[in-house]
Design brief:
heterotrimer; A mainly beta (411); B alpha/beta (422); C mainly alpha (561); B: 422 residues; alpha/beta; two-stranded antiparallel sheet; 29% helix; globular; C: 561 residues; mainly alpha; 27 helices; 52% helix
Chain lengths: 411, 422, 561
């Protein structure tokens, strides 16, 4: 797949200070493509970089060996999986299923069973018998009933000790990673939370619901610490009278200074997919949305993924209303910061009105609108992209597409 | 070429009175005739018990996979599972756990083929029992034949805020057309003009009637009677403004404070006040994108509210006399598109119904294993129309008599689904 | 509904007063005139056992009725009083002529035909206002009706100066089900819908051949979108034939274009170059022989009797409140016309007068049958299709909107403003001329478009074939709607100001009746109204407003007597 359309011809080789090799998103190219028979829902690159796990609409989880192309089916969910994570040691895959369960799977299972799958079409006199299909299958090591209705998200804390999930019972749950024991329930979302992430500091977690309400919780006590208004990410479809919004994906940067929420904005007709994609970047300290990452063409669709690359840029994946997609890259370190508006109460020369208190004036000065940020590079994909993840070394990324293809790119 | 008249039709199928096409007077008839089309046995049974209809219209096309006919684990089944219900052996989608507990009060028809994927055509077929033509909706038919003569409220009230709507009375008298309420808002312009007391309003109305009585003298009355009836309805609504006032907080907690909850609570009130047919529209099912997330949201709203409403009707002893119908204008495609959506599908959809005249706890018809086609007992909007009317005691195989025109009430090419009728 | 006993005083008044309304003496006319043929045919069919036909309407009633029927609104009180005071023996004919040449006639006919042809469909490709203006101008020009129909059926949307004409076909997007049905209904008086899948099950003379014969005219036509301008028009190809199968018998049939039972139209011999413009992505197809362009001429041809019978029936129904054939779109052998010979004569006369609708309107209006009172003596009210008395006719939504605004004084207010505005632009402007009247009418209509649309929206029905609908929503609007309430508020220059300025209640009530009912009140009515005012108890203003509302809500206001 060609990389194209770099509208910002600035030197894009970005050095990092984390030891990650230099990568150049503008040179991203597709190096591998694997096809599964059913549309994919999400993907994650396993920490060692050997495998990519995908979810599919046939309820299965599939592990693709990037070297050999071998596919192993991880079967056990009764519904779709739209989110994976890995244990701290990278040996266990966790899956969050819409059957309300969290699945635990060995990344390198000791036992892989070869199973003959029945042919989909009955043999008639005229048809030759189809060759039996042998599928490599793995069972879960355990399945935990986590939520009533969908279990939408699972996140393993960076320190590996805690797991957070959220689901259609409107609950955010905190579990011990060792035994998957429920530690506490965070109650407060009035609508379904779609994503939850534990902060790298291990003290807080954050979740966002369909209405764009983001709640920050204390990890230890499960109590609400604060709320962030991300209602820009939701919309009430006036024509069909229903809400649609929320975070399709959520991620912290490594340092925990930024939170990214991927989804939609400007809902016109969500039932037809008529809305704009967006990634909101939230400054963690101020809890303010500082940037709206917008796609280059702003075609209608959904932003399904957000990833903070150690090299300093943000990547997202987009599924268009017309079944096309993109992977887009935004530069973070060069994001412009808006000039603060003249302090409220200031006269034409900018001098503060002595009637106004200094703190009020400062607060009003600092509050400014989010920056509407366009990408510095776009990779066009011929199908809707529903998930994205990067390898640990940041050199490659994988995308899960609506046509059932898993595609791997090299930067 | 000689014109030939083909006589291929079954005489029973198209057995219409010749009078029906002789033309006649103006299209305004007399006041509603209560009980004119009931069999004597039914009339006797129903004496003193008004039959009513509650229609819950899931506008946009609810997915049969995500509601009444789940196919979990199949190619097109989607991510939801099926759950058991209060009827052993009957499962519905997990998105309706509260309704599942009430399935012993309902039956499902899973084998409807409307042969259209068009919103308007599908809706009209489901309402009128005919694929085309100017005919009254089932609510208007019910209003004409079931309304108590002394009930001052309109016979057919539709609580909605948008969506496809049309003239519902067809060739029936205007007072049987739906009175459309914008959500739980009172009818537009409800109320007396500023400063006008009830006494003055009464005097005005009396004067108006006097003037009309004079005008009627020596002239054809039917149009004027029809006109007077509309003012009578309006005055009665003005007296009942309280129906549209603040709703009880505890009841709102039970029904849900969202729009659908409020509308269903109003629907119950109107049924209790004797409105013959109350229709509540729940919007938001035309899920070409995000079918599953939207059904989660919409059916979450629908499920508890509907179960509460159904339960209240039952507890109040009304279910024997109220026919409850939950329907859409079509279903949704088996195939899931790239937007996680499902598109229009009129080839195999489901309806749930219960209450007056219906054998509850059953399932009629089925679709094939992957839900791509009706497998057995295929029916359409015409069969359903017959069934609804027969359930409330109206002989749908008789004719309307409109100013000398005889018009079959139900489409003669179809008949009631007899196994649903109790 | 409460039953109501007539107060004795009013009952007595009616018995005493109504029979004394003077009978109008008609001038002697030539026996061969159509109006006389109408009367003699109607009289011939009268039953001798029925009491005499109703007397002629008085001048007040005639003025209101003829103005509503030809101009879509009542006369202004000034014009009414002038008419009443006029002693000419031919004043009724003069009034008819004035109305037929007024800009209000064209506007009224625009509404009538717009609703008939477009059934209040929303815009698809052509702005409704463009089609409306095309119609209005056609009636201003008194375009022969066959010519109008020809233009509507042949317009393809490419004539930029007259794109409105193409709305009939374009905005239905040539979809067969809708297009064939409406062509049959509005031009032929036949709803052929049920003859789509099989011969009509009840009507012996509606065949699938008829349905598909019409469809065949349009089978080769398609919507073309210009890739540059994005304008949608109609293109045509040389391929496409119509076949059909009866769902009952399985018999297959085919047909070329045909008008009902008339001979099929065969294509001419194939040309080497059948196209003037070949259809492709950038060009709409223009074949040398175009089936679609045969539809219009076939429709209006002399051979196609159905066209003129339908046209005549509809005009008759518009004036008389009842067609010879009812429903208007159900002409067939078993649904005989009430006066078949008269219908035929009128239709032939219309044809002979080159489809001049004004001719037909006038002849009907000049007949005694039209001018009868709607009031019948005796206990029996005979069937309306015998025309013993005039039928009361419900106002269409447009008539009702104009009548409301005029009754309350809004039209007069806007007329004054329009005249002043035109005069300020042009000192020579003369409201007395025809051209001046046209300008004033256009300006007033534009100024009132908002409230007109609002009122029409309340009363318009999606089922445009319905003559009358009455719903609680309508009643609530009349009782409490904003467009009325606003104009019952004093100080706005409306009728209520004039009423409140009357020194005597009797004068006020007479003024009110003239404005709202186009007549003076009977003494008993005036007394009743005065009693209402006196005993209302909520203050004079409220009482007057309520009295106005009551009349606005009355049947005499809602229907043309």
């Amino acid at each position: 797949m060609s990389c194209n359309d770099d509208s910002n011809p600035v030197d894009s080789k970005v050095a990092s200070d984390t030891g990650v090799a230099e990568v150049d998103p503008t040179k991203a190219k597709e190096i591998q493509k694997f096809t599964h028979g059913r549309p994919l829902t999400t993907c994650r690159v396993e920490p060692s970089g050997k495998y990519v796990f995908v979810g599919a609409e046939d309820y299965g989880i599939y592990r693709f060996d990037l070297e050999t192309g071998d596919k192993v089916a991880y079967l056990g969910h009764d519904s779709w999986v739209r989110r994976f994570d890995f244990s701290a040691d990278g040996k266990t895959l966790l899956s969050s299923g819409w059957d309300g369960r969290i699945g635990f799977w060995d990344v390198e299972p000791a036992v892989i069973v070869e199973v003959e799958i029945a042919a989909a079409v009955e043999k008639t006199e005229k048809e030759e018998a189809k060759a039996a299909v042998i599928q490599s299958q793995v069972a879960a090591t355990k399945m935990i009933e986590a939520h009533q209705g969908f279990s939408r998200w699972v996140h393993v804390a960076p320190d590996g000790k805690t797991i957070a999930t959220c689901g259609n019972d409107k609950l955010v749950k905190v579990w011990s990673a060792k035994k998957m024991k429920l530690r506490r329930q965070c109650v407060g979302h009035e609508r379904h939370p779609w994503a939850v992430m534990i902060h790298p500091n291990g003290q807080e977690l954050v979740s966002e619901d369909i209405m764009g309400e983001i709640i920050v919780w204390g990890l230890k006590d499960g109590k609400q610490r604060s709320k962030i208004d991300a209602s820009v990410m939701t919309g009430f479809d006036l024509k069909f009278q229903a809400d649609m919004g929320g975070a399709r994906a959520m991620a912290f940067n490594h340092a925990g200074t930024l939170l990214g929420c991927a989804g939609t904005t400007n809902v016109v007709n969500a039932f037809a997919g008529q809305q704009d994609p967006i990634i909101c970047i939230i400054d963690w300290e101020s809890k303010e949305i500082t940037h709206h990452l917008r796609t280059k063409d702003n075609k209608p669709g959904i932003e399904w993924g957000v990833h903070f690359h150690p090299a300093g840029f943000v990547a997202g994946c987009f599924a268009g209303q017309s079944n096309n997609g993109t992977v887009e890259f935004w530069r973070l370190d060069e994001l412009a910061v808006a000039e603060p508006e003249a302090a409220v109460g200031a006269d034409a020369d900018g001098d503060l009105d002595p009637e106004k208190s200094a703190s009020t004036a400062v607060a009003e000065t600092e509050k400014s609108k989010p920056i509407e940020q366009k990408p510095f590079h776009v990779v066009k994909v011929d199908k809707a992209v529903r998930g994205i993840d990067f390898s640990s070394d940041g050199r490659r990324f994988a995308i899960a597409c609506a046509d059932g293809s898993l595609r791997v790119y090299e930067l | 070429m000689t014109m030939r008249r083909n006589k291929g039709c079954n005489p029973i199928d198209h057995d219409l009175s010749r009078r029906g096409f002789m033309g006649g007077g103006l299209m305004a008839g007399a006041m509603a005739g209560f009980g004119t089309l009931l069999s004597p046995a039914m009339a006797a049974k129903m004496k003193g018990q008004q039959k009513q209809i509650l229609q819950v219209y899931l506008q946009g096309g609810v997915s049969q996979f995500e509601s009444w006919d789940p196919k979990p684990g199949t190619t097109f089944g989607g991510p939801f599972r099926a759950i058991p219900t209060s009827v052993p052996g009957t499962q519905i989608c997990e998105l309706m756990p509260h309704t599942a507990k009430k399935m012993h009060l309902l039956s499902i028809v899973r084998s409807i083929n409307l042969r259209t994927n068009d919103h308007n055509k599908g809706m009209l077929f489901m309402e009128k029992g005919r694929p085309a033509g100017t005919y009254p909706y089932v609510g208007s038919v019910a209003s004409k034949y079931l309304s108590q003569p002394d009930n001052p409220l309109p016979g057919f009230v539709h609580i909605t805020t948008r969506g496809l709507s049309g003239e519902t009375a067809g060739f029936l008298e205007a007072q049987h057309a739906q009175l459309r309420l914008e959500g739980v808002q009172p009818p537009q312009h409800l109320g007396l003009p500023a400063g006008v007391s009830e006494d003055l309003a009464l005097r005005s109305e009396n004067l108006r009637l006097q003037l009309n009585q004079q005008f009627k003298t020596g002239r054809s009355r039917s149009l004027i009677d029809s006109y007077d009836a509309s003012f009578d309805q309006a005055r009665q609504l003005i007296k009942r403004t309280h129906l549209f006032g603040d709703q009880d907080e505890k009841e709102l907690d039970r029904y849900g404070r969202h729009w659908f909850g409020r509308r269903c609570l109003l629907a119950r009130t109107l049924l209790e006040e004797g409105v013959t047919c109350v229709k509540v529209t729940h919007h938001g099912y035309d899920t070409h994108a995000e079918n599953f997330n939207f059904h989660v949201e919409q059916l979450d709203e629908f499920d508890k509210t509907f179960a509460t409403l159904l339960g209240d009707i039952e507890e109040r002893g009304m279910l024997d006399n109220v026919l409850v119908i939950v329907y859409s204008e079509f279903g949704r495609t088996p195939a899931i598109n790239h937007k996680f959506g499902r598109d229009h599908w009129g080839a195999s959809l489901s309806v749930a119904m219960g209450g007056c005249g219906i054998q509850a706890g059953g399932v009629v018809g089925s679709t094939n294993a992957d839900g791509t086609a009706v497998k057995d007992r295929e029916v359409d909007g015409g069969h359903l129309f017959h069934t609804y009317l027969q359930a409330v005691g109206i002989d749908s195989q008789q004719n309307h008599d409109i100013d000398g025109r005889s018009i079959p009430i139900g489409d003669p090419v179809t008949e009631p689904i007899k196994e649903l009728l109790s | 509904m409460p039953t109501f006993k007539f107060p004795p005083i009013l009952a007595a008044a009616i018995c005493c007063l109504l029979p004394s309304i003077p009978t109008v003496v008609f001038a002697q006319e030539s026996a061969g005139q159509l109006r006389n043929i109408i009367d003699s045919e109607i009289r011939k069919a009268h039953d001798s056992t029925v009491a005499n036909a109703a007397v002629a309407s008085d001048d007040y009633t005639f003025a209101r009725r003829i103005s509503m029927d030809l101009a879509g609104r009542p006369l202004t009180v000034t014009a009414l009083q002038a008419f009443i005071a006029d002693k000419s023996t031919d004043k009724r004919e003069q009034l008819i002529d004035r109305l037929l040449t007024s800009p209000q006639y064209a506007r009224h006919m625009q509404y009538k035909f717009d609703v008939l042809l477009m059934q209040r469909l929303p815009k698809k490709h052509i702005a409704p206002s463009e089609f409306a203006e095309f119609l209005r101008q056609s009636f201003v020009d008194n375009k022969p009706h066959d010519q109008l129909v020809l233009e509507i059926l042949t317009a393809d949307g490419t004539d930029k100066s007259n794109r409105g004409a193409s709305r009939f076909l374009l905005d239905r997007e040539l979809k067969r089900e809708e297009t064939v049905r409406v062509i049959g209904q509005v031009f032929l008086g036949r709803d052929l819908q049920c003859a789509q899948c099989h011969d009509h099950p009840q009507i012996d003379d509606y065949f699938q051949q008829h349905y598909y014969g019409l469809a065949a005219f349009l089978k080769r036509s398609y919507l073309f979108t210009d890739p540059k301008s994005k304008i949608v028009s109609i293109g045509d190809k040389i391929e496409g034939d119509v076949t059909f199968t009866s769902v009952f018998t399985g018999e297959e049939g085919k047909t070329q274009p045909r008008m009902l039972a008339l001979t099929e139209l065969s294509d001419p011999p194939a040309d080497k170059e059948p196209y003037e413009t070949k259809p492709d992505k950038t060009n709409r197809g223009v074949p040398k022989y175009n089936r679609r362009l045969q539809l219009g001429p076939s429709m209006i041809s002399d051979e196609n009797i159905a066209f003129r019978l339908n046209t005549t029936n509809r005009i008759w129904a518009q004036m008389m409140g009842q067609g010879f054939v009812e429903p208007l779109d159900l002409f067939h052998e078993a649904n005989a016309a009430s006066h078949p010979a008269l219908l035929q004569k009128l239709a032939d006369a219309l044809r002979d007068h080159k489809y001049d609708l004004k001719y037909l309107f006038k002849e009907i209006a000049m007949s005694k049958s039209y001018q009868r009172s709607s009031y019948m003596h005796g206990d029996t009210i005979p069937a309306v299709n015998k025309y013993y008395n005039a039928a009361i006719k419900p106002l269409s939504p447009e008539q009702f909107a104009w009548t409301l605004l005029q009754s309350l004084g809004e039209v007069q207010k806007q007329t004054k403003a329009a005249e002043a505005a035109l005069l300020s632009k042009d000192k020579e402007f003369d409201t007395g001329t025809a051209a001046g009247q046209v300008l004033v009418e256009a300006k007033v209509t534009a100024a009132l478009q908002g409230p007109l649309d609002a009122i029409v929206a309340v009363f318009a029905s999606q089922n445009t074939a319905l003559k009358f609908t009455a719903s609680a929503n309508h009643a609530l609007y009349l009782i409490n709607g904003p467009e009325i309430a606003e104009r019952l508020t004093p100080g706005g220059g409306y009728l209520i100001d004039e009423l409140l300025a009357c020194e005597e209640d009797a004068t006020m009530i007479e003024t009110l009746y003239l404005h709202l009912y186009s007549r003076k009140p009977l003494p008993a009515e005036s007394k009743l109204a005065q009693e209402f005012i006196a005993t209302a108890g909520d203050g004079k203003l409220l009482a007057v407003q309520e009295l106005m509302r009551t009349l606005l809500c009355s049947a005499e206001y809602r229907f043309v007597r």
